[in-house]
Amino acid sequence: MMPHTLALVLLVIASPTTSTFASTQDSPAQAASPTIPDNRPSYNSNTTAGDTKHFDPAAATQAWLDSVPSNQREKSDAYFEGGYWLILWNFLLTGAICVFLLESRLSARLRDFSEGVTNIRNLQIACYAVPYLLLFYALSFPLNLYENFFREHQYGMATQSFAPWFREQLLGLSLTLIGGTFLVVVLYAVFRRAPRTWRIWGTIVMIIFSATLVLIAPVYIEPLFNTYKPLSDPKIRDRILAMARANEIPVKQVFEVDASRQTTRVSANVSGLLGTTRVALNDNLLKQCTVPEIRAVMAHEMGHYVLDHGAKLLTYLGILMLIGFALTRILFNAAVKRWGKRWHVRDIADPAGLPLLALIFSILLFFATPILNTVVRVTEREADAFGINTSREPDGMAQVALKLGVYRKLNPNPLEEFIFFDHPSGRGRIRMAMDWKAENLP
Ligand SMILES: [Zn+2]
């Protein structure tokens, strides 16, 4: 255990609030399965010492899972499993749009148009990129509308009517046009100067671009969609800030965000990089969760901060990107050799080949889904481990895992978890909490 968690241990044990919240009244484990009498969630309740021996983490985990009504479980399973298919539909739609732009030679005509507008190379690329991005957005809009508006309403997650939703879509599209055009212009400058080694320079550009995006997001992008303010409720604030101070996290970086503007989901996040890093709890979490649950979530988010997950994920992403670009280069050259004449695509430096690049990249991304999810899920599990040791709230953690189960399948099979889960499943998280509890009972 890290030394700075010691203060928290003392805080939790000494604090009457925590023991109240963590008392048996919150426990579905006990309510749902009276046959497991020693499944008391509170490790400082007045059970006898003999209980320690009887606490069975597997049975306790099952009892938590069984506390979810079956109709609720069916609904959240359907929601999450529908997401598996959406990965496929999005992949197929993107592929179809790319093939359409190439086969119809719309992409080549757009390139010809941009070359007619100006002689400046970078401007030509920009003149190609803006209509390309707009066309892509328009053609994928029906699926976007279903996935992010109708489906979210159907499952009771969305809180926005169409007008504000669409306004945010347009805002997002504007940002995509600015950032996307800039990125495409820079990448094609690399393609022109380094037609053989662009995979290396392209990777460096992508890493710098991603890092910059992460760095400026909390300052310039997130405030466009939501309001961030320092935590206001002193009861919660003081407990969270104590945990932050104990983990060397600058207190001014713990925020509350009005996510209820868009969704009913309970969540929290860490965003930013270096000086802009901040931890934000959403207001749904603050409204729906007890203090031990909030502490469990915040300790997890602090884990991301303390364990430097932003920089680590960027590093992993960079390695995967380099492999992806190397494969893309081989596939791109092969495709141009074979179909270049038909599509009027000359070489890598020709913007008419952008849909081909996008097609190859989306194929690689599609097949890399389990790898990408696993990379993220492993860091999430690290944050969970940090979180449970820091918060010492096994029941809070289990309870929150059930609340997240509204939009994430609670009990998947191992293969399903490996392929589709970018966070540990509810079952995995509850089991971690119960294992921790079994070893830490008084
Ligand atoms: Zn996380």
Brief synopsis:
The chain has 442 residues and is mainly α.
Q: Largest beta sheet: what is the strand line-up?
A: 1-2-4-3
Residue fraction in strands = under 5%
- Helical content (DSSP H or I, runs of 4+): over 70%
Strand-and-helix sequence, N→C?
HHHHHHHHHHEHEEEHHHHHHHH
Rg computed from alpha carbons, rounded to a whole number of angstroms: 25 Å
Number of helices: 19
How many domain regions? 1
Shape: elongated
Structural class by helix and strand composition: mainly alpha
Distance between the termini: 17 Å
Largest β sheet strand count, sense and barrel closure: 4 strands, mixed
Write a structural description.
This protein has 442 residues and is mainly alpha-helical. It has one domain. Helices cover 71% and strands 4% of the residues. It has helices at 6-14, 16-21, 28-32, 51-54, 57-66, 70-103, 106-117, 121-154, 162-193, 198-225, 234-246, 283-288, 291-306, 309-343, 354-367, 369-391, 394-404, 414-420, 426-440, and strands spanning 228-230, 254-257, 268-271, 278-282. It has a four-stranded mixed sheet with strand order 1-2-4-3, sandwiched between helices. Strand 3 and strand 4 (278-282) form a beta hairpin. Helix 9 packs antiparallel against helix 10 (198-225), helix 13 (291-306) crosses helix 17 and helix 17 packs antiparallel against helix 19. The longest helix has 35 residues, at 309-343. The protein starts with 5 loop residues before the first helix and ends with a helix.
